[in-house]
Design a protein that fits this description.
Largest sheet of chain A: none
CATH class of the domain at 82-236 in chain A: Mainly Alpha
Order of helices and strands of chain A: HHHHHHHHHHHHHHH
CATH topology of chain B: MetI-like fold
Helix content of chain A: over 70%
CATH superfamily of the domain at 82-236 in chain A: MetI-like
CATH architecture of chain B: Orthogonal Bundle
Structural class of chain B: mainly alpha
CATH architecture of the domain at 82-236 in chain A: Orthogonal Bundle
Number of domains of chain B: 1
Order of helices and strands of chain B: HEEHHHHHHHHHHH
Oligomer: heterodimer
CATH class of chain B: Mainly Alpha
Strand content of chain B: under 5%
Radius of gyration of chain B: 23 Å
Number of helices of chain A: 15
Number of strands of chain B: 2
CATH superfamily of chain B: MetI-like
Helix content of chain B: 55-70%
């Protein structure tokens, strides 16, 4: 589709480039602020490079600097430990993703391949659940988790998402339906049961969509705020998003610790940015394919 | 059957049961401390007279309208630009990037960039001779600001969906238009847009359902303020349930939100005839 340069194309490219800058600039600004000395920020609000470049903000939010050091660089001196929150986010996102994708794959296989009465009706019911807004189920779920005594535990944060989501089942079922049946029939004649077909045939053949789904699930779980805010406020299970909210509300109104706040947001965002860089092509293409999520 | 067991367990315990229980709770008075007490339609009656509730609905609708309007136009624009200019995966990845970081992160970065005194945006405005704007502090600006932030996060994602839709339009349609001497603009309005309708309808329904549930950005920036300017319905339900422990009333409002979403989605799908394509 190569065409010669014409004014229209130049303008169009200019628009696209402006949009890309608009997209990337906040990421840069996050980094620039995080590397600055907070006490100096207000004096140089429009300096494009970090002001008095220092790693102080990172040390401060990772709980590595003393109260005096932190305060000297404009921190509040309150103890924050983003190492711990990072670990918590890793635990929650990893367990949720592994369980959710695995159990959803099993269910998707049952919907795609096994024959049982009422299958399509049950599948329709699963899909209907996509329509229910999360807050509607969140309130009773909170009551349930509370009654089970699981508030402020990893189990409480993870359980509701650990078994399935309607989307994950729907997504994988589509792929399983497309797998050639002849292979399975051949395996069946060789005496393989459903279990062996699922683990030996279906899962390896769907490695690509399963990876895509796992990456998307991981990102969603990592970024989730509402549910962990309700059930996991306490420090030992506090995930990054919740910690950021708390950090922001604790930073002094008059002289906020912007450098510390940006260092903390960067810590929360970086794993997702890295994951994205590693799987950029797969993630970008999956959106065209699946249409909606 | 063992294949279905874990998913079914999760589905029944965390989807079906809470849906039924939520519906029941909406007819009760429930403070978490004692068992729920049936009180008929009291909660719904109370909602009718609750000015905070109506304010929350109004604010949410304002947010949804700004958010969807801006986002759809920008997303279609970006998708068109990409479609005409480049297939580059890098460009697409850059455009998508904001969607991958948490709402909370996005909200905080913009909270900083839009700071009244030393935020870079107001610095820029001052530089070109415009008075600084209290983006979060001014009750007229707060909702448009929050809508804008979320447009920034979601527009690339939506653009990619539209982009995928554009690629499904067969080339011969454009060739025919070109032969008939149709201008670029006319081609867009008469051919591209109508053929995109099924995808656009889908996008509109999904973004609408999503934007009615705006919460994260509000929770970490304005927390409903200034005064009640950004107390959106999700946030109001959250406050009622978790700071006032008014679970019955909160459930009733969630029920109404559910009903609104269902009705609006059905209407949209019907009006936009989402299931039919003009290509057939």
């Amino acid at each position: 589709m190569r065409t010669r340069l014409n004014p229209g194309r130049v303008v169009a490219w200019a628009c696209l480039i402006v949009l890309m800058i608009l997209t990337l600039f906040p990421f840069y600004w996050m980094l620039r602020t995080a590397l600055s000395n907070n006490t100096q920020l207000s004096g140089h609000p429009n300096a494009l490079l970090p002001v008095e470049t220092t790693l102080g903000a990172f040390k401060r939010v990772l709980g590595l600097s003393s109260v005096a050091e932190a305060q000297a660089q404009g921190g509040s001196g309150a103890s924050v430990n983003f190492w711990l929150y990072l670990r918590n986010s890793l635990v929650v996102a990893t367990v949720t993703t592994v369980c959710q994708v695995f159990f959803s794959a099993m269910a998707a296989y049952a919907f795609a391949r096994l024959r049982w009465p009422g299958r399509d009706k049950v599948f329709a019911l699963f899909l209907a659940a996509l329509m229910v807004p999360p807050i509607f189920t969140t309130l009773p779920n909170f009551v349930l988790i509370k009654n089970l005594g699981l508030l402020n535990s990893f189990a409480g944060i993870i359980l509701p998402g650990a078994f399935m989501t309607p989307f994950a089942i729907f997504f994988l079922r589509q792929f399983f339906l497309g797998i050639n049946r002849e292979l399975e029939e051949a395996a069946m004649i060789d005496g393989a049961g459903h279990r062996r077909i699922f683990f030996g045939l279906i899962l390896p053949m769907s490695a690509a969509p399963i990876t895509t789904l796992a990456v998307l699930t991981y990102i969603n779980s990592w970024n989730d705020y509402f549910w962990p805010l309700l059930v996991g406020q306490q420090e030992q299970v506090r995930v990054l998003t919740v910690a950021l909210g708390i950090f922001r509300s604790q930073t002094p109104q008059g002289s906020p610790d912007w450098a510390g706040l940006m260092a903390a947001t960067l810590i929360a965002a970086l794993p997702m940015i890295l994951l994205f860089l590693a799987f950029a092509k797969r993630i970008t293409n999956s959106i065209g394919f699946s249409g909606i999520k | 059957m063992i294949f279905l067991a874990p998913a079914t367990l999760g589905f029944v315990v965390f989807y079906i049961w809470p849906t039924l229980r939520g519906a029941y709770l909406s007819f009760t008075e429930y403070s978490l401390l004692s068992a729920p007490e049936f009180n008929g339609l009291d909660n719904y009656d109370r909602m009718l007279h609750d000015s905070f509730f109506w304010n929350a609905l109004g604010v949410t609708v304002e947010y949804v309208v700004i958010n969807i309007g801006l986002q759809t136009v920008l997303a279609v624009g970006i998708a068109m630009l990409m479609y005409r200019l480049t297939q580059s995966i890098t460009v697409r990845a850059v455009i998508l990037a904001p969607y991958l970081v948490a709402n909370v992160v996005v909200a905080l970065v913009w909270y900083w960039m839009l700071d009244f005194q030393i935020g870079i945006v107001n610095q820029g405005l001052t530089w070109i001779g415009i008075d600084p704007v209290a983006f979060f502090g001014d009750s007229h600006w707060a909702i448009p600001t929050i809508a804008g932030i979320n447009v920034w996060r979601h527009m690339g994602y939506t653009a990619l969906i539209v982009f995928a839709g554009l690629q499904m339009i067969p080339k011969y349609v454009y060739e025919a238009a070109e032969m008939d001497g149709a201008s670029e603009l006319k081609t867009f309005w008469r051919i591209t847009l109508p053929l995109l309708r099924p995808i656009l309808a889908m996008v509109l329904v999904v973004t609408m359902i999503g934007s009615f549930q705006i919460f994260d950005t509000v929770a970490v920036t304005t927390q409903g303020g200034p005064i009640n300017a950004t107390r959106v319905i999700y946030y109001y339900i959250y406050e009622r349930a978790f700071t006032r422990f008014d679970f019955g009333y909160a459930s009733a409002m969630a029920m109404v939100l559910f009903a609104i979403l269902a009705v609006v989605s059905l209407l949209q799908l019907r009006l936009l005839r989402a299931k039919e394509s003009d290509l057939a």
